[in-house]
Amino acid sequence: MNNVTTTMSSDEGVVGNFVSRRLFFLQYLHVLEFVVAVLVFVVINSLRQRRRYGLPVWPFLGMVPSLVSGLRSDLYEWISDILCEQNGTFRFKGPWFSSLNCVVTADPRNLEHLLKSKFSVFPKGPYFRDTVRDLLGDGIFSADDETWQRQRKTASIEFHSAKFRQLTTESLLELVHARLLPVLENAVNQSISIDLQDVLLRLTFDNVCMIAFGVDPGCLRLGLPEIPFAKAFEDATEATLLRFVTPTCVWKTMRCLDLGTEKKLKKSIKGVDKFAEEVIRTRKKELSLQTEDKKQRSDLLTVFMRLKDEQGKPFSDKFLRDICVNFILAGRDTSSVALSWFFWLLEKNPVVEQKILAEICKIVNERDDMKNGADLKSPLIFRPEEIKKMDYLQASLSEALRLYPSVPVDHKEVVEDDTFPDGTLLKKGTKVIYAIYAMGRMEAIWGKDCREYKPERWLRDGRYMSESAYKFTAFNGGPRLCLGKDFAYYQMKFVAASILYRYRVEVVKGHVVVPKLALTMYMKHGLKVNLIKRPESELQVYLKNNV
Q1: Which residues are listed as membrane-spanning (predicted)?
Q2: What confidence score (pLDDT) does residue 26 get?
């Protein structure tokens, strides 16, 4: 009897354990089903919001997962695709409590509104200044209000002076004929490939230093010596841009701990500062030794050194350093990067190259010495009035800038509640990104052939016709319109004509050309090219056709 009782108790225990485990499993299954149901709901709801916002909006993370995907591919094309789908404007939602929320637009009506009509309502703003301050300080690119106005006014007076214009043309002529062409000729003679983007960056760096600071760094010369400043400056612009796609609390923490891209930025800025401080120190020493009877310098840095701040004191070395760095960014990167994309596009569009060459030869043919049978082998130097006549070349350069603007995106911040012309509501403090790269790919702006390279869209009866600054924003617009726009075109035309008249530029087979994520649109891997001497017989054909 006892044995039976014991056996029954044991069986009941086994059954009880089985039932208990099953109940636990069923409870766990219910919880799992609930979690899966919630996840499915979140995913479906997030994906549904893509129709409304252009991208999935995830709890806590916002649109960051999509942004990460864009960063891994081509960020500028990613932004362009979204803007095309969203009719030119979309609202980016960052993670909760982050600084990444902003409105992104490529609508010309909105650009005219923020760059011109409501200029005072859309300054660069504290967020932009805080993000770029380590590199650009209080220079003209990041400054607002009186600080910006003072720099703008001083630079404008200098840029429009006859003395400054003469200096720019003379220095460019010297750089092209005494340095650029010998470097290119050396590459041809040795049958070696060169990185044309690097060569052009050296050219524009020497040029901006000569006209803005009165110094000649000598970057462009045979052998192409390594220039520590150039690498430091490029690394600094890249690391600075990454701050805009990183929550502020994250990059500031990385800066405090000296980690990752912030460590790289800190190191590169030291290289930038070293160059700027040396320029300022040298100039101050020269000015202290300068006597009244000596010819006074007229470069931009010297002009600022002679001015006083609001307290009637000379500007600090820190402010002068910011002046240097900002004008290097404006004068070095923009023209050279634009020319690099121009030569890349030209190789893919040989008919355009033929038309440019025909235009150059036609203009050269109008010279009196050519009419009298001048020898083609003699060095040809283009005259300012000839450069001005090159309408098709300017159209070709503008078309390159339309598709590959030197500054692909720019930033503003709203200081009071406002509404864009397209109906987008803007609360005070909203950050606005205007996507200049994307504008060149909008059918609503440029038509169905917007992605094609067609210089003819800039011509009316064979003459170059500029477009609205709010449709073609490569040189910005409104009160912040680029002061050096005219010189940039002259510089690019002079360099391009001088190269194309002498050489065919062929991109090395298999060389990958993609944009780099930086403040300016560098080519990530440079532009490796082979130069082929243009035969005299080819030039003769164009010259005879223009008789």
Answers
A1: 25-44
A2: 57
Residue-wise pLDDT for 67-98, tens only, equals 888 888 889 999 999 999 999 999 998 887 77
Q: Render pLDDT for 154-190 as a digit per residue (tens, 0 to 9).
A: 888 888 888 888 888 999 999 999 999 999 999 999 9
240-272 core/surface letters (b: 16 or more CB in 10 A; e: else): bbbbbbbbeeebeebbeeeeebbeebeebbebb
Q: Three-class SS string for 41-97?
A: HHHHHHHHHHHHHCCCCECCCECHHHHHHHHHCCHHHHHHHHHHHCCCEEEECCCCC
Q: Cα–Cα distance between 213 and 288 in angstroms, integer?
A: 16
Encode 424-486 in three state secondary structure: CEECCCCEEEEEHHHHCCCHHHHCCCCCCCCHHHHEECCEECCCCCCCCCCCCCHHHCCCCHH
Whether the predicted pLDDT of 380 surpasses 80: yes
pLDDT at 41: 45
- The answer to whether the CB of 449 falls within 8 A of the CB of 425 is no
Q: Are 401 and 474 in contact (CB under 8 A)?
A: yes
Confidence of residue 10 (pLDDT cuts 50, 70, 90): low
Nearest to 273 by CA among 322, 237, 203: 322
